[in-house]
UniProtKB/TrEMBL annotation, chain A:
Location in or out of the cell: Chromosome, Centromere, Kinetochore; Lysosome membrane; Nucleus, Nuclear pore complex
Similarity annotation: Belongs to the WD repeat SEC13 family.
SMART domains tied to this protein: WD40
The protein's name: SEH1-like (S. cerevisiae)
Record-linked Pfam families: WD40
Organism per entry: Fundulus heteroclitus
Automatic annotation (TrEMBL), chain B:
PANTHER family: FROUNT PROTEIN-RELATED, NUCLEAR PORE COMPLEX PROTEIN NUP85
Gene Ontology BP term (one): mRNA export from nucleus
Organism: Fundulus heteroclitus
Subcellular location: Nucleus, Nuclear pore complex
Entry similarity comment: Belongs to the nucleoporin Nup85 family.
Subunit structure: Component of the nuclear pore complex (NPC).
Chief location bin: nucleus
InterPro entries in the record: Nucleoporin_Nup85
Protein name: Nuclear pore complex protein Nup85
UniProt entry keywords in alphabetical sequence: Membrane, mRNA transport, Nuclear pore complex, Nucleus, Protein transport, Translocation, Transport
Keyword Protein transport: yes
MF term (GO), any: structural constituent of nuclear pore
Protein role: Functions as a component of the nuclear pore complex (NPC).
GO cellular component: nuclear membrane; nuclear pore outer ring
Amino acid sequence: MNPCGESSCLSFALTLVWDKRENGEWQCTASWKTHSGSVWRVTWAHPEFGQVLASCSFDRTAAVWEEIVGESNDKQRGLSHWIKRTTLVDSRTSVTDVKFAPKHMGLMLATCSADGVVRIYEAPDVMNLSQWSLQHEISCKLSCSCISWNPSSSRAHPPMFAVGSDDSNVAYGGKVQIYEYNENTRKYSKAETLMTVTDAVHDIAFAPNLGRSFHVLAIATKDVRIFKLVPLRKESTAAGPTKFEVQIVAQFDNHNSQVWRVSWNITSTLLASSGDDGCVRLWKANYMENWKCTGILKGDGSPLTGSSGQPSAMNMVVGSSVQNSQNILNGMSAGS
Amino acid sequence: MEEVDVNPTVTNIPAIRHGKHMGFAWGPEDILVYETQFKASGPSLSGPGGSFIHKVRKDEDIHSPILRKLFNESHHIFVGLQTIKEDVPSKSKKPQFVSISRNYRSVIRACMEELQQVAVSTKDTEMATQYGNQVSILLAIELIWNLCEVLFIDAAPAGSLLLHLLDWVRLHNADADEKAKDVLQSDSPAEHHHYWDVVVSYVLQGRLEEARQMLAKQATRQPASRNMYKLMDGLLSKMPFYNPGGTQTLTEFDVKWRNWHEEVDRYLKDNSFSSNYHLELICKILVGDEDALLEQKELLSTWYHFLITRLLYCHPTVKPIELHYYAQSCLTMFLDSRSVQEPLDSILLAAFEFDIYLVIKDCSIVLNNWWFVAHLTDLLDHCKLLHSHNLNFGSNMREFLLIEYASGLFTHHSLWQCAVDYFDHCPELGRACLELQIERVPLDTERKALKVLRICEDRQMSEQVRSICKIMAMRALRNNRLGSALSWSIRAKDAAFATLISERFLQDYCTKGTFSDLDLIDNLGPAMLLSDRLTFLGKYREFHKLYGEKRFKEAAKLLLSLMTAKIAPRSFWMTLLTDALPLLEQKEVIFSADQTYELMYCLEELTSSLDTAAPGADSPMQEQDVEQTKVELLRLSLARNLAMAIVKEGTVDT
């Protein structure tokens, strides 16, 4: 989710939740003030854990929220209530990203802060969301802007995450770092730094793993980049993190400006990116692994009409009430 | 041969101002975009931000009810194809494959006809255009598929090849028949302004019998030219056509054909038809005169018709490998400076060049939907026409395309079930993709969840089974539907969750005095053993049943065993002992002396542990009093029972 305007951190920051009803319509079921500063990101936990959200903010905290099913009247009116289960206050600077770990790791989340520290928390009892313990604190040396867990649940891959830095000093190379969990030391250690990424990184996303032996990572920086990380075979006696062969698979500067967000679809066949050029671009690979842009979404400022759809390859459904999937919007409150 | 390049499609989103930064999020079947106020630097913009979220969805086709039939029926055919036995050699399976190919094509045609009908009958011009577009696409698809069937699947050798290509052209050229109908229905067919068009069209398509019949009508009107017509009729009737089932070899046919060709040429050079423009034209066509053929561009309408006609009258024994020379030159000759080579032309050309990969690649790029390339590639693969590329994907092209197609199906609320079969037949990546996709199927109703579960259970996807059950259990628990939550957690074999829910049941009992969801608890069966707490719940309920049925001795025994076998949690013992009270107070002695001793022992164990526990400063004096009274009552009852039991057991019945 995108940050609100930077100069408005004094304003309240609201979080809104939308639910899809049985008749297919969307409705805003909750909106509430989550933090006292701009909310940078919000993320959902896996539905196995219930309806759980985490948010992180400029106010140096991250919070975990749970939906409480209200009275049946509320349900009919389409209202739900969210209560804060815990606030994570360990960071001394703005918390720039929060992500839940893949569900096979239990109820775990990672936060990263502007002071370059990644913290990993775990809720040992998944039924008690108020108890979180700080399991790992990792210093990345550069200010962090984004974090992404490797979603692979294969036993061949130890838990892994990637951290991106928005440090603008080009002299410090390697704005993306990969950390891997070591079963023996029970700690995360740095496995790889992508030295070729020297510009500020705004977003980072591992692709869903389809049982492949290698990993695919998308990076939003001054352009869109896709990397392939191939684990090199370890000798049985070798200790330490896996060594990777890093290949750049694609690099696109079509946005012609800073790219702020990258996100994969479920089957990792489509990558979407958004940039300062006001477009959302969709990228797809053919079976020979050649990546191409397959679609562009851009605002044209035309007024909203009542009809649905243009007869084109991408069809559009537009509603007059706000619609959403089970994701959250960051919005500015009306007064700001 | 270059790959077709198509620019990315641009979709405009209204109500988002141009140049404004857009945020987005992936939904299960779509992508959502919204306007943000984000600016990398400088003050944030004033004024209202965009208040809309737009849902953008690709591939409207899935939601068309007519096309859905296409997807459903082709799914049938697909599954049938996969079950053809592997051990039989490919050669003998050819007729089977051709028949399957024809099935696919007839499904396309049926769909096309339905769409055509709707396009014509609808009053909504926008819809009509849309339907019209879909019809054109299906037409193109069927054209390409048919050609692929002729060239790749049927793979006819020289001789038969041309005959099949002739069929192909005839099938896709309805104009001639339309005109013929008009002409024949008129009062005087020979005078109809389309008459000669029809005759020439027949000749161009090699339908000489029909051409002769048409000509006969003209012949009767022009008795003066009777000889000329008779001559033409003769030439037309004598043209040799190769008979694949016959005894004539290709070489023999070739000789015969050349003789006929020379004869026609002689008459042409003799000016036998020079006085009749039309007959001379027909004669030139029969001889294969290129210029004459090119003049008929309008009737031919396509370069591939031109190609087949040219081959028919110049080189009917054309071999498959020779096709591409003729194809390329015909395309060039046919397209003048005004017309541009369209993607369809490139695809057909690639087919004539027998470049299967290029055909598939170009079709993937040009066509919106993966349906065509996925099914065609699958069929070609079964014909063993695709050599497996070792791709970085770890899979091959067939799987890639099938997975693309099936993934698209997954977003549809009912077609997703068809998609499962496609994944099943992708040995390398199918399972992983299915696992990912099936977890995302919205579990709107219990029925749907059960459907999804059955699919996972059938395929031993135990992790997905567990996950789905857990999600449903969580949902039920949050909505306080304990029975549902319990049955889901039993199905998930989730002991921890089952324990949790059992606790909730027991808590409910303590507060309300009754059990909810009795049916479920009564019929737990072996599932009871999933967790200790669950076992206790089941057994406790059994106790109540026995009591209700006045089977007091059995009830008493069960109650005692719950404590002595440590099935009951210590926290519940007080409740159990309290439950024992009515049994102790009965006129008849129910608990034996030994049993009573055991009960007393339990009570003492319980009270001593309560004593040693630090007296809760929180628990009000009142509560402690109540507890104390209970304990005293119990002690009294137990003592009385013990007395009566000892007496009873000591009495000898005389």
